[in-house]
Amino acid sequence: MTVSKAWDWNKELCPIWLQPSEESYFIAQKWKDKNIKKVLDFGCGLGRHSIYFAKQGFHVSAFDLSEEATDHLKSWAEKENLSIEIKNADMLKLPYDDNSFDAIFAYHVISHTDSLGIKKIINEMTRVLRIGGEIYITLCSKESWSFKEAGYPKLDENTVIKTDEGPEKGIPHFYVNLDDILDLLANYNIESIRHKEECYFSGKKLNSKHYFISASLRTK
């Protein structure tokens, strides 16, 4: 199993990482409607979703492997006068008790591992989520250019290491198809799985595809 590696945020200049994703607006409203209270921002990065969810009235906990990222979020939360529990942690070993959260939001983060690591991460998510609790996660698609055609070195049949200069250099990326998702989330009731292509971003053509997944932890 590969060792977790933090993003190098000094090499990331795109302002998108300070803005809530489109999906977070819908998920926040959905979770408010369901009276969900405690939310874990899983691999929070600079904190764009932690700040947004906290402003929506959720009790937010957040963690990231990067100290630079969590320091940024701490300063941001202080400026916004928001109470967010912020920790440095590895997603392979979460510093939370069992059944701690009503919901987990993991946006473009749990793919940063290999085939063994993803099972460990999902087990950890399941451990800290209450029965019936909800998850919203994204996973990299095997239909993406970066998996099929880029020629990145492979760690295993599902995982490549990105070698381009930038914040993700040297970080593993795990890719799935629909059957892989159904296998990985066998303990969950899946509400929806969307397969989305980013075909143009920041002035460039792309072929970057991700799965966007809503599910709840099944009663054992």
Model description:
The chain has 220 residues and is an alpha/beta fold. The protein has one domain: Rossmann fold, CATH 3.40.50.150. The protein has six helices and ten strands. The protein has helices at 22-33, 48-55, 67-79, 115-128, 145-148, 178-184, and strands spanning 38-42, 59-64, 84-88, 101-106, 129-141, 154-156, 159-161, 172-176, 188-201, 204-217. Strands 1, 2, 3, 4, 5, 6, 7, 8, 9 and 10 form a ten-stranded mixed β-sheet that branches.
What are the defining features of this structure?
220 residues, 34% strand, ten-stranded mixed sheet, single chain, alpha/beta, Rossmann fold
Structural class label:
alpha/beta
CATH superfamily grouping: Vaccinia Virus protein VP39
Instruction: Estimate what percentage of residues fall within beta strands.
Output: 25-35%
- The CATH C-level class name: Alpha Beta
CATH architecture: 3-Layer(aba) Sandwich
Task: Summarize the model shown.
With 220 residues, this protein is of the alpha/beta class. It contains 6 helices and 10 strands. Helix 3 links the parallel strand 2 and strand 3.
What is the topology?
Blueprint lengths: L21 H12 L4 E5 L5 H8 L3 E6 L2 H13 L4 E5 L12 E6 L8 H14 E13 L3 H4 L5 E3 L2 E3 L10 E5 L1 H7 L3 E14 L2 E14 L3
Parallel strand pairs: 1-2, 1-4, 2-3, 4-5, 5-8
Antiparallel strand pairs: 5-10, 6-7, 7-8, 9-10
